[in-house]
Amino acid sequence: MDDETAPQKGTVTQRAIERIKAMIGEGRLEPGQRLPTERDLAVQLGISRSSMREAIRALTVLGVLEARHGSGIYVTQLEAGDLLETFGVVADLSRGPRLVELLEIRRILESTATALAAARITADQLAEVEKHLAAMNATDDPEEILAHDLAFHREIAVAAGNETMAAILEGLSSRTFRARVWRGYQEEGAFARTRREHAAIHRALAARDPEAARAAAAAHVGEVEEWLRAQLGPQGRSPGPDVPPLT
Amino acid sequence: MDDETAPQKGTVTQRAIERIKAMIGEGRLEPGQRLPTERDLAVQLGISRSSMREAIRALTVLGVLEARHGSGIYVTQLEAGDLLETFGVVADLSRGPRLVELLEIRRILESTATALAAARITADQLAEVEKHLAAMNATDDPEEILAHDLAFHREIAVAAGNETMAAILEGLSSRTFRARVWRGYQEEGAFARTRREHAAIHRALAARDPEAARAAAAAHVGEVEEWLRAQLGPQGRSPGPDVPPLT
DNA sequence: ATCCGCGAGGTGGTCGGACCACTATGCGCC
DNA sequence: GGCGCATAGTGGTCCGACCACCTCGCGGAT
After folding, report:
1. Does any domain span residue B242?
2. Which residues of A touch B89 (CB under 8 A)?
3. Taking all atoms of strand C, which protein residues have CB closer than 7 Å?
4. Which of B78, B101, B117 corresponds to the end of one domain?
């Protein structure tokens, strides 16, 4: 009754976003459930369809809603992967010192995840890890190496048993992020070193040795971290060509 | 030249989002810089103002852009706090087993951050920590305790020297998140224990003892984590009163 | 000459309607 | 009974208008 008088805080779109978020938070909207149509929702919240669409778009990019053309709007499964997809944006837009900070976080999480994986990994999962390890060593195509490298670490993160952590690590290792950092790193003949480090991680996993796994993973990420730190130190500028701002 | 023919992938809004993100990623749009008007941008990208507004709204909720009514659209400083604000959404919308996973991640990061802080914290920062510790012990108002509790950990995270990690921890400790979990936790007379744990963390910081700090922080978060795990185990339901879905 | 105030222009915010693209459903035809 | 197409309904896009708010410069008062 008392909420009929508009609180008038912020834009109507922002209010609509909060309303829908609240509905989900309170359990009035279950994962996978279909929402009313844009037009109905707009009427229910007393706003125009344009504003409602902006709210839906916002919740869509956040991974909370999913719009299917011609079908309807649905709540996602609200799983870690859905909601943490935006984490990749942070990695992609960060540069300079923040890249080092992101790698530091990845080192902390990746080492812990690898240690957990050493204790929990199943035979099947270990076989999957070995598959990517072999594929990584069997080709010279940087694209393919990168893909299997990502899958290698992803499999380990999943084996650690924490889906959320796996999703965060996935974001911290997004294609564009690694491509940017690794472009220079691997040009310095770091392939061999990378292979040795991956082999060490695999050995620790196969031996079910959490401490060795933690150390190997920390060293693996730490190598890249140190290299990047050194890159930024001397010149203080982020890599890449300086493109003058267009009109 | 070859990009003049529309690639026709996805919705025009999604394409606009990618375009603007790319402009920022390539450095053509600097942090803090003002963008052209919505109307001009729409013309430049060859889409309607409505679609452009949806793209801008999307980038706004991601913390990449900031729209000031009557003034213009600006690129944010792209700092950790700006981009990771959405991380709180994850915490707010997660429930059940995922809450435990989030606490596990917080335990890993918070313990490491506290260890780093023990080695790096300045006298001023330590005084600030003590201020919040004292304020926390001087009141019985749960709201105020929660606020100083958040500030206590935030100050430590900042002292660790990794802004990004501080921002993530901030998201993992968002008001609504903690309020939900702590409501039940603190009702079990955990105030005294919490105060002891905070005191232990402070002692380790004052003694500049990283290992003790790591252990104290891990135990602090671990306590809540274990309690929550126990809550979820027996009944398999998320805590809190079972409110029947409202109409 | 300096300062203050107010008004005009420009900006994002909201609205309503129209049409297009796609999907799903069911009815009728084979 | 099964298949295919017409159709209604959905999200996607566009347009034009108006509103609320901020900014800046012009003009007058001091």
Report:
1. no
2. 21, 62, 64, 83
3. A 11-14, 46-51, 54, 68-71; B 35, 37-39, 49-50, 53, 56, 67-73
4. B78
Residues A101 and A192 in one domain: yes
Residue A146 in any domain: the answer is yes
Token couple for B141: 């108002």
pLDDT in tens, B173-229: 887 787 787 777 766 677 888 899 999 999 999 999 999 999 999 999 999 999 899
- Residues of chain A neighbouring B17 (CB-CB closer than 8 A): 61
Distance of C1' in D5 from CA in B97, Å: 48
Q: Note down pLDDT in tens along chain A; length 247 residues.
A: 444 444 567 899 999 999 999 999 999 999 999 999 999 999 999 999 999 999 999 999 999 999 999 999 999 999 999 999 999 999 999 988 999 999 999 999 999 999 999 999 999 999 999 999 999 999 888 888 889 999 999 999 999 999 999 999 999 988 778 777 777 776 667 788 889 999 999 999 999 999 999 999 999 999 999 999 998 876 544 444 333 332 2
* Residue reference for tokens 């938070």: A25
B108/A104 CB distance under 8 A: no
**Helix or strand (DSSP H, E) at B68:** strand B65-68
Among residues A24, A54, A78, which one ends one of the domains? A78
- Tokens, residue B89: 């959404």
Same domain, A201 and A225: yes
Whether residue A41 is found in the same domain as residue A125: no
> Do B111 and B218 touch, CB atoms closer than 8 A?
yes
pLDDT for the residue A222: 95
Do B103 and B215 fall into the same domain? yes
Q: Do A93 and B83 touch (CB under 8 A)?
A: yes
Q: Do B38 and B52 contact (CB within 8 A), yes or no?
A: yes
- Expressed as residue numbers, the domain containing B108 is 87-235
Q: What is the pLDDT of residues B33-63, one digit of tens each?
A: 999 999 999 999 999 999 999 999 999 999 9
Residues in a beta bridge with A74: A34, A66
**Cβ distance of A243 and B28 shorter than 8 Å:** yes
In angstroms, the CA A225 to CA B163 distance is 16
For chain B, what is the domain count?
2
**In what helix (H) or strand (E) does residue B75 lie, and over which residues does it extend?**
strand B72-75
Q: What's the rounded Cα separation, in Å, for the pair A220 and A225?
A: 9
CATH for B72: 1.10.10.10
